[in-house]
Amino acid sequence: MTTKLEKLEAAVRDVLGDRALQISVALGEVTVVLAPADYLQAMRDLRDSASTCFEELIDLCGVDYSTYGDGAWDGVRFAVVSHLLSVTLNWRLRVRTFAADDEMPVVPSLMDVWTSANWYEREAFDLFGILFDGHNDLRRILTDYGFIGHPFRKDFPMTGYVEMRYDAEQKRVVYQPVTIESRENTPRVIREESYGAK
Q: How far apart are CA 20 and CA 96, in angstroms?
């Protein structure tokens, strides 16, 4: 008897053919890896094919693999991971594509395929610096417009580079270098010997 995941894997293989660099089934999910050059058309095909019918993009995020596996990762640094949903066929699919260039990570935008990609791609751009070719409004969405860098990159400093505060004398928001000193916090349960005693 064929399981639902086996049917999904076979349908995805049938739709994508050689464009699927890898298809794996793990932890109750099917994951397919696509080359950036095939990404946009493959996603259209997964949406339009009656055998897969992925009507919805329910999530899209960036990933920085630079420290993956305690630095053992030997591949391309940045990836975009999308999660697709077929309400009609009641199944989900994870799609991963890697940006070819670590210095300027670019992948095609899915805005023309699913409009829900808009804010997801803006978030991946803002936090990871991944550019989406064809996105018509790629600007920061979570950090301030004057923010420098991309805070979810593994090489971004934990305290950031600048802090923003309101200066009452100047009557405006000012930016200044970070002044936070590192400190070690000890949880109260360790610090207080009588914690929880009656």
A: 10
